[in-house]
Write a structure and sequence with these properties.
Blueprint: H1 4-8, E1 17-26, E2 35-45, E3 48-55, H2 60-67, E4 81-86, E5 92-98, E6 101-103, E7 110-116, E8 119-124, E9 130-136, H3 142-150, E10 161-166, E11 169-176, E12 181-187, H4 197-200, H5 203-209, E13 217-221, E14 225-230, H6 255-271, H7 285-296, H8 301-318, H9 331-349, H10 358-366, H11 373-382, H12 388-402, H13 413-435
Antiparallel strand pairs: 1-2, 1-4, 2-3, 3-7, 4-5, 6-7, 8-14, 9-12, 9-13, 10-11, 11-12, 13-14
C-alpha cells in the first residue's frame, strides 16, 4: 500500500532542492498574480522551506502595492502573499503564506526570496475517506525505545502495527523504524471527522511524551478528493522529558497501560466540544496545558514553577472541582456556615460608612460556600488521587511564585524535590481526569 510518506518523502529531506519551472506569487483573492516566474524551493529544516523566484511583474504598481499590504495590519496573516509552484516532475503544489524579500537588479528579472512552512497538494478522484499522519521520531529518544517494546512483533515482513478501538472507530498505528516515523491512520467516521482528526491524533502523543509532536506528513481524504501536506515538525527537547505523562518504574514494561492511556486521551480530546457544542479545530485545553509546561521546561526554574502551579489550578477547573458546593463539610456544618455568611452580608448591607469595601467583602465571604482549588486538592489527597508531597509542593510554591518570590536558580535536593513533586501533581490530576473517560462508548 502506498502511504502519504511514500508520496511526499522526496519533498521533505533537509537539503533537498526542488526545481520549479513555474512559480506564482499570489496577491489577494481574485487579484492578478504579483509575478510569475521560475526558481526552486529548498528544504531548510524540518520547520521551514526556503525559495527563490526569478521573474519580472507585468504590472509594477500592482506588485509593489500588493507586497506592502501586510504593513497595514501586521497581525492579519491573510494580508501576506501566497506561493504556488509547478515542479519539474509536473506536480502542482501550494507553498502557502509568505512575506517575500525583493531584489531588483539593474538588469534582468526581479529576485523574490523568502520562507514557507509547508507544501501541499490537492487532487480529485476516488479515495477511501480518512486521515493519515506521520510523526518524526528521534533515534535516541526514550519514546523510540518505548514504542519498539510496545508494538506487537511484525508479521510477514510488514512493519510493526497496533490497532486500537476508540469510540467505535479503528485507529491503526505503524512504526516505520527505518524511516524514523510513527504513522497513524483512521477512517473517516461520525466520530473521527475528516479535517479535525489530523489534529486530534497527535494530541495524546504530546501529552504522553512531553514533546511538541506535530505531524511531518498529513493526508486528508474524502471519497472524491485528497489533500496532502509536508508540515513543520519541531525538534524534540531533552529538557521537557520531565513533562511527559508516561514515566515511572513501569514505563518500559506496561504496554497495556500505555495503549489504554492513549485510547483514553484520544477519546477525551475527540469528545471535547466548544461552548456551541461544535468540534474544536484548535488543541484541547488539556493538550494546551501540556504544551505550556513543555515550553516552560526550557526556561528558568521560576518560570517552570509558575507554569506548573498555574496549570495545576487549570486542571482542577477541568475536573469541575473548583467552584462547586462544599463537599468537605457535613450538612449541619454547611448550614451553619451559610447562616453565618448570610448574617455577615446583611451586616455589610447595613453598613453606613464608606461603601467601597462592601461588595469585595461580601464576595470574599460568599466564596466560603464554594470549593476552592486548595480544598479540592485536599479532597483529592484524602481519596488517594494525589500524594501528600505533591499537594505540599503546590501549596508551598504556588503563592510564593505567583507573587514575585523567586525560586532558587540552583539545584538542591529540597528544591528539586519540590519542583518534581509539583510536576507529579500535574500528572496525577491528568490521570484523575482520564479515570472518567470511557474510550469504548
Amino acid at each position: 500500500m502506498v502511504t502519504i510518506v511514500d508520496r511526499l518523502r522526496h519533498l521533505s529531506e533537509v537539503g533537498t532542492v526542488i526545481a520549479c519551472p513555474e512559480m506564482t506569487l499570489l496577491a489577494g483573492d481574485h487579484d492578478a498574480p504579483i509575478v510569475v516566474g521560475a526558481g526552486e524551493i529548498t528544504v531548510l529544516t524540518p520547520m521551514s522551506f526556503g525559495y527563490t523566484l526569478r521573474g519580472t511583474p507585468s504590472d509594477f504598481g500592482h506588485a509593489l502595492g500588493s507586497l506592502r499590504r501586510i504593513e497595514r495590519d501586521p497581525y492579519d496573516g491573510t494580508l501576506r502573499e501566497r506561493l504556488t509552484v509547478k515542479t519539474s516532475d509536473g506536480a502542482d503544489l501550494m507553498a502557502g503564506w509568505t512575506i517575500p524579500k525583493v531584489h531588483v537588479p539593474e538588469s534582468g528579472a526581479w529576485i523574490f526570496t523568502g520562507e514557507v512552512e509547508a507544501l501541499s497538494f490537492h487532487e480529485y478522484g476516488e479515495f477511501d475517506p480518512g486521515t493519515e499522519v506521520a510523526y518524526l521520531l528521534p533515534r535516541q529518544h526514550r519514546a523510540r525505545i518505548i514504542l519498539r517494546r510496545f508494538f506487537p512483533p511484525a508479521v510477514g515482513g510488514e512493519m510493526p502495527t497496533k490497532c486500537l478501538r476508540v469510540l467505535g472507530s479503528e485507529v491503526v498505528l505503524t512504526l516505520d523504524d527505518d524511516a524514523d516515523l510513527l504513522i497513524v491512520r483512521a477512517p473517516a467516521s461520525d466520530v473521527l471527522i475528516t479535517c479535525f482528526a489530523e489534529n486530534w491524533l497527535g494530541e495524546p502523543l504530546r501529552i504522553l511524551f512531553g514533546q511538541l509532536i506535530y505531524p511531518r506528513f498529513v493526508l486528508r481524504q474524502s471519497d472524491k478528493w485528497a489533500m496532502g501536506w509536508v508540515r513543520p515538525s519541531p525538534p524534540w527537547m531533552r529538557d521537557s522529558d520531565a513533562c511527559s505523562l508516561w514515566q515511572g518504574d513501569d514505563e518500559l514494561s506496561n504496554a497495556d497501560g500505555f495503549w489504554e492511556t492513549f485510547r483514553r486521551l484520544l477519546a477525551y480530546v475527540v469528545g471535547a466540544r466548544n461552548e456551541r457544542g461544535d468540534c474544536n479545530f484548535e488543541a484541547n485545553k488539556l493538550t494546551d496545558l501540556y504544551v505550556e509546561v513543555i515550553q516552560a521546561a526550557c526556561g528558568s526554574r521560576w518560570v517552570w514553577a509558575l507554569t506548573y502551579a498555574s496549570a495545576v489550578e487549570a486542571l482542577v477547573k477541568l475536573l469541575g472541582l473548583e467552584g462547586r458546593a462544599r463537599t468537605d463539610m457535613d450538612a449541619k456544618a454547611l448550614m451553619e456556615l451559610t447562616q453565618a455568611v448570610d448574617a455577615f452580608n446583611a451586616y455589610i448591607d447595613a453598613w453606613e460608612g464608606d461603601p467601597r469595601p462592601k461588595e469585595p467583602a461580601k464576595q470574599a465571604t460568599s466564596r466560603l460556600l464554594r470549593t476552592s482549588s486548595v480544598q479540592a486538592l485536599r479532597k483529592l489527597v484524602a481519596d488517594g488521587s494525589v500524594a501528600k508531597d505533591e499537594f505540599h509542593a503546590w501549596d508551598r510554591l504556588r503563592n510564593r511564585v505567583m507573587h514575585g518570590s523567586l525560586v532558587s536558580p540552583y539545584s538542591t535536593t529540597e528544591e528539586d524535590k519540590l519542583l518534581l513533586d509539583l510536576s507529579r501533581l500535574f500528572h496525577s490530576l491528568t490521570r484523575r481526569l482520564l479515570q472518567d473517560v470511557d474510550p469504548d462508548l
